[in-house]
Amino acid sequence: MPLRIAVLISGGGSTLANLICRIDDGRLRDVTIGLVVSSGSAVPGVGIAREAGLALKIVHTKDSRTGPSFSARITELVDEADVSLVVLAGFLHLWRFPARYAGRVLNIHPALLPAFGGRGMFGRRVHEAVLAAGAGESGCTVHIANLEYDQGPIVARARVALRPDDTVATLAERVQAAERELYPEVIQRVAEHGLEWLRERGAASADA
Ligand code: GRF
Q: Ligand 1 centroid vs 120 CA: distance in angstroms?
């Protein structure tokens, strides 16, 4: 049985596009995207999901006045999709998931957590902070998500050395290249070894 995943997006969808590409070319095996949830309707990621023919649902943070809360709606959709793993892919909100999803939600962050993470630390702001701090290296981190931004057990990290002439753009480009390798690698491991592997890996918190 393939590992059935849901992918949660908010914007660009480059992470989603990479996963689709890896599944299509066979580098990501035995993984199927059962659902994409987007927190924005007019974002490129929605077009990417549609073009790939994936099941897609849009959830707005402001919907909550008339029905279930934003998080409860996501939970409903993910429940209906019957997925084993939820992959946060540039998802900019906190999904307050119920306990049954603990250990089954992954996030990728464009820096070496626990540094340079937390609420509001996304996109170019992360790289600006890394450069401003004069850090010698950056990279990306895949971690098991919990109910706080960028917290939760680290599953794998990939390091990227900083160059003296780095700008936000050049650093972002190398970090994104590292992300395109690391996220599918981790998901592939889950497909092969199950959620138990994820739990063990999170408990060990090791570098890739
Ligand atoms: C990546 O930098 C990732 O680390 C972060 O969101 C960015 C990708 O956004 N979580 P997107 O997939 O292009 O929307």
A: 13
Q: How many residues does the chain have?
A: 208
Same domain, 160 and 72: no
Q: Is residue 109 annotated as a catalytic residue, yes or no?
A: yes
Q: pLDDT category, 66, cuts 50, 70, 90?
A: low
Cα-to-centroid distance, 129 and ligand 1 (Å): 16
CATH of the domain at 162: 3.40.50.170
How many domains in the chain? Answer: 2
Residues 50 and 91 in one domain: yes
Q: How far apart are the first and last CA of the chain?
A: 26
pLDDT score at 63: 67
How high is the pLDDT of residue 61? 86
Residue ranges making up the domain that contains 58: 1-101
CA-proximal residue: ligand 1, atom 7 (nearest): 90
Q: What is the pLDDT, as a whole number, of residue 108? A: 98
Residue 184 in contact with ligand 1 by CB distance below 6 A: no
Q: Which 3-state string (H, E, C) describes 74-106?
A: HHHHHHHHCCCEEEECCCCCCCCCCHHHCCCEE
What is the per-residue pLDDT for 203? 87
